[in-house]
Amino acid sequence: LNEIHTELYITEGDSGDVNKEHELKQIEAASRRNPTEDTPIKCSDIFKPLPEQDESIRNVLTKGVAGIGKTVSVQKFVLDWAEGKTNQDVHLIFPLPFREMNLMKEQKLSLVELLHVFFKEMKEMDISRLEKVLFIFDGLDESRFPLDFQKTVRVCDVTESAPVHVLLINLIKGNLLPSALIWITSRPAAVDQIPSECVHRVTEVRGFNDPQKEEYFRKGVSDQNLANKIITHLKSLRSLYIMCHIPVFCWISAAVLERMLGEAESGEIPKTLSQMYTHFLIIQTNIIREKYLQKQESDEEMLLKLGKLAFQQLEKQNLIFYEEDLRECGIDVTEAAVYSGVCMQIFREEFGLHQSKVYCFVHLSIQEHLAALYVHLNFMKKQRNVLEQNQVCRTLLDVHRSAVDQALGSQTGHLDLFLRFLLGLSLESNQKLLHSLVTQTESSYQNKEETIQYIKKKISEDLHTEKSIN
């Protein structure tokens, strides 16, 4: 982490209105913002008041879009503390990710017992005697707890048993361990679950600024000539360069462009988001093929199963899945282990602090791309529209209409990037790429103009500005 870590741009921000547009639009808006309006803050300083601030800071809420670097910021904060570099006034740090605490949703425990579950070493320690401890609740947006700050019973004793969400609320309110520091991270859409009176500072991880983007590629790509080619290519395509605010997108771009720009005969270099993600999927599938010498049919089967999982969980707005979610999609636990083994760059099986299994796609945008691929292939192979309970449909236009209508009907914009991918996959340039992944039976070229006319009609119907831009 110390060797590869590129510092992220983090700012102090107020807890303004919850942003209901897709995170991609928020990234584009951030790229237009004037940096002089911001108050930059180092990750290690988030609990330190600014010179003009008198009051101490107990609770910090850090927001940022998916893949922007919130969890890595947490890891770097803990590493710097453990190595004695920063925040040495803190005696102990307890990282408690929501994705792991979700598995204890039904249990009643005291705070002491909860800490024993996650940190076996705490058995001999009296937590109430420690002056300064820090609890890090990473991934509020992944929480499956009911967080009702108004009606929750008050708990002040660290040995009193209560449901886990009650302990969390009392820790955040300061009823339990009032001297403890609290750090919560979240995607923007979920931050309003924490009342503003319980937040003493809001910070925002804004990802990489332009110099940091270049630093990332120069650190990550050993051949500096190749790194320069990658940077030049991305700078020439504004929509892709804006996406490079997100470290995960830099990683995907580096994986694709390092391979393509480094080879003399490598085909057309990706110029759009859909092309970049489809190339990434092809590269990962080829790695699987080389590793396991599987037939093409099994690649297709695997992609369709992962696509179904991606689509069904995207509809529910879930980024994190558990065994029961997998079973609903027809994936058993042994298959999931195989998928995470062969597609580690796409799909992950994680073991929590108490060895529970949690599954996720490496990034939300990979989930959105696979979901779009699943919808597209269901029409191409079976003439089914999975957006409308698997109805039989005659043309791809019917699928596109359903997708446009559902994306417009979403309050959170959670289908916006999915829609961009779905429309992109029907273009000829992507159709040719898809042939190396799957066998297709239909041609989708003929519907492009009709889809364009339908979208223009929707825009003319006085859409919300942000939605019409998308």
Automatic annotation (TrEMBL):
Main location: cytoplasm
Domain NACHT: 58-190
Compartments (UniProt record): Cytoplasm
Keyword list, A-Z: ATP-binding, Cytoplasm, Leucine-rich repeat, Nucleotide-binding, Repeat
Any GO MF annotation of the entry: ATP binding
InterPro entries: NACHT-assoc, NACHT_NTPase, NLR, NLRP_HD2, NOD1/2_WH, P-loop_NTPase
Matching Gene3D superfamilies: P-loop containing nucleotide triphosphate hydrolases
GO CC aspect terms: cytoplasm
Matches recorded under PANTHER family: NACHT, LRR AND CARD DOMAINS-CONTAINING
Protein name (record): NLR family CARD domain-containing protein 3-like
Source organism of this protein record: Silurus asotus (Amur catfish)
